[in-house]
Specification:
Protein name: ParA family protein
Largest sheet: 6 strands, parallel
Strand order of the largest sheet: 3-2-4-1-5-6
Strand content: 5-15%
InterPro entries: AAA_dom, DNA_Partitioning_ATPase, P-loop_NTPase
CATH topology: Rossmann fold
Radius of gyration: 19 Å
Domain AAA: 14-193
Pfam family, one: AAA_31
Organism: Pseudonocardia xishanensis
Order of helices and strands: EHEHHEHHEHEHEHHHHHH
Oligomer: single chain
C-alpha cells in the first residue's frame, strides 16, 4: 500500500464506513456525495455497495447490478470467488480534476451473504478487510463503504475494515436510539476482535425538513451535544448538515454526483466539508484546511430560541 506523508497514521487508501443500522438516514446519498466531492479534489475513490438493496449501484450511480454468474462482491466475501479484487471493480470515467470515482457494485447474491458468511468461512467479520488488502498499491486514496441498515455480519465487516466512521443521523427519537446502539456495537467489536479504536469522524444530520419542527430542534440539540466528549464517550462533532433537497434526486437521475450536477448548491458545499475532514484524516490535506472552515450554524432549540425563532 502507498504511504501517506509522515504525519499520517496508516497507509493509503483511507477506508471509511458510512454507517448507521437505521434505514432512511441518508447513508447512500452521503456516500456518493462525499465520494464525488473527494473526486472533485483530485482523489482516487473506490465506493463499495455493501447493501443488498443496491441503492448506491442502481439509483445513485445508475449502474447495473453484477450478474450473479460473474465475479461479484458477495461471492468474494463467502469464498466462492478468490480472484483479484480488481475484477470486482467497475471503472468509471475519470473526473475532470483528475480524480476517480469507481465502484464495487452489489448483486442479487448479496441477499444470501449474511447466512453464508456464518456457514462457510472462518473469521467472517474480517472477510471484507482481507479482500481490500488485495487492492493494488497506489490505486486509491479513499475507500467509502455504503453499509446496510442493520447490525449484522456485514456491518461488522465494515467496522473491521474501516479506519474510521461517518454516521448519518436524523433529528428524531428512533435515530438517536439507533445512534446509542451503534456506539455500543462499535465498542463491542473493537473489544472482541482486539481492534484499534476506530476514528469516529462525526455525525451528519440529514433527511430532515426545513424549517425544523419544535421536536426536531430539541433532537438536533441532543445531536449537537455529542460533540462534547464525556467519560467513556468519544466526541462526535457534527461535520455538515444535509437537509432534504430536490437536488440530490435530480443529480441521481442525471447520473452525476451533486457536486458535479450543481457545484454552487449548499448541499455540494456540505459534501465538500465532509470530504475535507476525510482528506485530513488520510494525511492528504493539512489540519488547518479543516479547522479553517467557517463553523457550522447551530440548529438546536437553544440557538433558535436565542434568535427569537420558533
Amino acid at each position: 500500500m502507498e504511504s501517506r506523508p509522515s504525519h499520517a497514521a496508516s497507509p493509503l487508501p483511507r477506508i471509511t464506513a458510512i454507517l448507521n443500522q437505521k434505514g432512511g438516514v441518508g447513508k447512500t446519498g452521503l456516500t456518493v456525495g462525499t465520494g464525488g466531492a473527494l473526486a472533485e479534489r483530485g482523489r482516487r475513490v473506490l465506493l463499495i455497495d455493501l447493501d443488498a438493496q443496491g441503492h448506491l449501484t442502481t439509483e445513485a450511480l445508475g449502474e447495473d447490478e453484477v450478474d450473479p454468474d460473474l465475479p461479484n462482491l458477495a461471492h468474494a466475501l463467502v469464498g466462492k470467488y478468490e480472484g483479484p479484487v480488481e475484477d470486482l471493480i467497475l471503472r468509471r470515467k475519470p473526473h475532470a480534476s483528475g480524480g476517480q470515482l469507481d465502484l464495487i457494485p452489489t448483486s442479487v447474491a448479496m441477499f444470501l451473504v449474511v447466512r453464508e458468511l456464518y456457514g462457510r468461512t472462518r473469521m467472517p467479520e474480517s472477510r471484507l478487510a482481507r479482500l481490500l488488502e488485495g487492492l493494488p498499491e497506489g490505486t486509491y486514496d479513499h475507500v467509502l463503504i455504503d453499509c446496510p441498515p442493520s447490525l449484522d455480519i456485514l456491518t461488522d465487516n465494515a467496522l473491521v475494515a474501516a479506519d474510521g466512521l461517518v454516521i448519518p443521523v436524523q433529528p428524531n427519537n428512533t435515530s438517536l436510539r439507533a445512534l446509542r446502539l451503534l456506539i455500543e456495537q462499535i465498542a463491542v467489536i473493537e473489544e472482541e476482535m482486539r481492534l484499534p479504536r476506530r476514528e469516529l469522524y462525526g455525525l451528519v444530520p440529514g433527511i430532515y425538513r426545513r424549517p425544523l419542527s419544535g421536536i426536531a430542534k430539541f433532537k438536533m440539540e441532543e445531536l449537537e451535544g455529542y460533540g462534547n466528549p464525556a467519560p467513556g464517550i468519544p466526541a462526535l462533532p457534527i461535520l455538515a448538515h444535509l437537509p432534504l433537497a430536490a437536488v440530490v434526486e435530480e443529480a441521481w437521475l442525471s447520473g452525476a454526483t451533486v457536486v458535479d450536477y450543481k457545484p454552487s448548491h449548499s448541499i455540494s458545499d456540505a459534501y465538500r466539508r465532509i470530504a475535507t475532514r476525510l482528506d485530513v484524516a488520510a494525511g492528504l490535506s493539512s489540519e488547518h484546511e479543516w479547522t479553517g472552515l467557517p463553523p457550522l450554524e447551530s440548529l438546536s432549540a437553544d440557538a433558535q430560541n436565542s434568535q427569537g425563532s420558533d
